[in-house]
Amino acid sequence: MIIRRERADDRPELLAVVQAAFADPGEAKLVRGLFASREYLPGLSLVAESVRGEILGYVITTRAWIGGQESLGLGPLAVQPEYQRQGVGLALMEASIAEANAMGESTLVLLGSTDYFPRFGFVPADSLGIVPPDPSWGSHFMALALASHQPGSHGVFKYAAPFTSR
Ligand SMILES: CC(C)(COP(=O)(O)OP(=O)(O)OC[C@H]1O[C@@H](n2cnc3c(N)ncnc32)[C@H](O)[C@@H]1OP(=O)(O)O)[C@@H](O)C(=O)NCCC(=O)NCCS
To answer: Which pLDDT band, with edges at 50, 70 and 90, does 166 fall under?
Structure first.
C-alpha cells in the first residue's frame, strides 16, 4: 500500500469509497463540496492505494480557522469496508499529520471517535483553548498541536464553508 496525493481522475473511485464507508450519503456530498471550495489544499487530499492500484481509503484535510488564525480541519476519513482494521486509516492519519507538520501548520482539528483518534495524539480541543461552534460536539471535538503550534492561538473553530452549508 502507498499513500499519495489524490489526482483528479481518482475522484469517482474515492467518492465511492467514502460512500461505502459511511451510511450517511452526506459525507460524499461534503467531499465533493470540499473539492470545489477555496479551502481545498491539494497536499492534504490523500488516497491509500493497493499494489494493484485499487483505492482502499481516503482522507481530506482543509483550511479552517481558530479565532482569526489559520488552522486545519481533518475529515472525512474513510476506508473501504472490506479493508478496515488493517492499518489503512492509521497510514492515512500518519501521512496527514506528517504533511501538515511539513507545511508548517499549527493545529489539526477534527470531530470523530474518542476511541480512535487519541492514538494519534489528539486531545479534547477545549484543553487547547479551541471552542467548538456547536457545544453538542463535546469530547468528540479534538485537536492535535503540530510542531509549529502557537500556544496563544485559541478561540472559536470554523470549518471550511462546505461543512456549514450542508
Ligand atoms: C474509522 C476508520 C477510518 C478506521 O480506519 P481503519 O483502517 O479501519 O483502522 P485502523 O486499521 O487504522 O485501526 C484499527 C483500530 O481502529 C479501531 N477502529 C476502527 N474503526 C473504528 C471506529 N469507527 N471507531 C472507533 N475505533 C475504530 C479498531 O478497533 C482498531 O483498534 P485496535 O487497534 O485498538 O484494535 C474506518 O474504520 C472507517 O472508514 N470507518 C467508517 C467511516 C468512519 O467512521 N470514519 C471516521 C469518521 S471521523
So the answer is: low
Q: Ligand 1 center to residue 138 CA distance, Å?
A: 20
Q: Which atom of ligand 1 is nearest to the CA of 88?
A: 7
What DSSP state is assigned to residue 22? -
3-class DSSP assignment, residue 59? strand
**Alpha carbon distance 159, 152 (integer Å):** 19
Which atom from ligand 1 is nearest to the alpha carbon of 93? 12
Q: What is the mean pLDDT of residues 122-134?
A: 96
Across all residues in the chain, what is the average pLDDT?
96
Query: If 0-12 CB within 10 Å is exposed, 13-18 middle and 19+ buried, where does residue 125 land?
Result: buried
The pLDDT tens digits for 28-39 are: 999 999 999 999
**Pocket lined around ligand 1, Cβ cut-off 6 Å:** 21-22, 75-79, 84-90, 112-113, 115-116
| CATH, residue 42 | 3.40.630.30
The domain tally of the chain equals: 1
Ligand 1 atom at minimal distance to the Cα of residue 111: 48
**Residue type present at position 151:** P
Cell 494493484 belongs to: 52
